[in-house]
Amino acid sequence: MPRFRHALIPVLTAAVALATTACSLSPDDDDSTVIVVGYQSKTINTVTAGTLLRARGDFEHRLDEVTKRTGAKYSVRWEDYDTGAPITTGMIAGKIDIGSMGDYPMLINGSRANATPATATSILSVTGSSPKGSLNMVVTKPDSTIASIRDLADKRVSASVGSAGHGTLLAGLAGAGIAADRVDVTNQQPQLGASSLESGKVDALAQFVAWPGLLVFQNKAKLIYDGAQLGRPTLHGTIARNAFVAAHPDVVQAFLEAQLDSTKALADNPLAAAKQVADASGLPPEVVYLYNGPGGTDFNPALKPSLVDALAADKPYLRSIGDFPNPVDLSTFVNDEPLRAAVAATGGDYRALLHRTGNASTAVGEVWYSGTTTTKVGDATAVLKLVRAARDANRPVTAAYITDPALGTRWFADHAVWLRDGSTFQAFTTTDGAAAWRATHPTAVPVSYADALKQVQP
Asked: What is the model's pTM?
């Protein structure tokens, strides 16, 4: 068993009176029913069911349509959390109707909430996913001698126990042949973990997006483990109380239609969406765009069989962190019928969503200039040429992004690990990735980003 410094998971109670529900009459309008939505403003993988959805007002707009059709009035109370655990607590207590969280937290939610029919929940849609798992990462201080997950034995690592980031840490350690009890896991919320890393109280931080990217962007961390090294899907999704779904099917469909609205807006103009999320969350737009730009998070809402299979493969994680007496039955816990209805109502094709892969981008690199101008290119060398040309012309560059050629992870060009092979350059998320490439490309040599910019031929 891994060593945990603090309480494992917030204690969740299943003894909830049926009368205790989040859905209640508004104190400001006796005729208005309040819908409580739990979300994570800084978790980019959930923005289409949280931050972006709220900022755009899509849910309220869809509820207005329900009101016009049925006469029933609704208002929305948005509750912002750092992780999925408190959302699960609120749902079991009947105080949150709809929420969004990562794969491991959803499994914990199902195990806890489905202990009794009164508190049972279901997964209704996907908010964001990665086919290889790149949405969770492990970082250390920039000057740390730790360069790989293999170096974490006998070290202290901050993680939110029960989160997707923690699950990836344990899976990564297992893949590296390191017993979980060789690592001292400090159970902390993301922002506290970030402070602990900066102050040296922990040696590394394992978290979900956008925390790793944020700390690296701020020059407070370096990436040592890319979750895509696991090579298996990770996802975040929308989850709701079954009692609420049964009592308010119109509201649930309105929420899912609103998620589809936000998803379309993000796909149509990811840069504008990134700025909107940045304004609402306080995250730098460059960090948001890292994840929702071309080649980043897949925001396809469909509950694909491959993602459900990934959830099934994650079940052993529950046993590794504690006693979960109610194994999740994914055949009932995953319910795509409401989403199918929402897609059909908005003129979409759910079957097409099931077969769509990635976020429909073939770009390997992208340079974001000032304002809203970006240029997409097909390789890392082209990224260097664009950045050098911009600097030579004194043209501001907001951010430059590359895609790891082996893992497919989108990353900051100036924080990537670069190799030069003749006149060609490759960029990787980690030193492990660069080393693996050099093993099959013996003429490739390490080069810093600054030197790569100097050496690239215009």
From this structure: 0.92
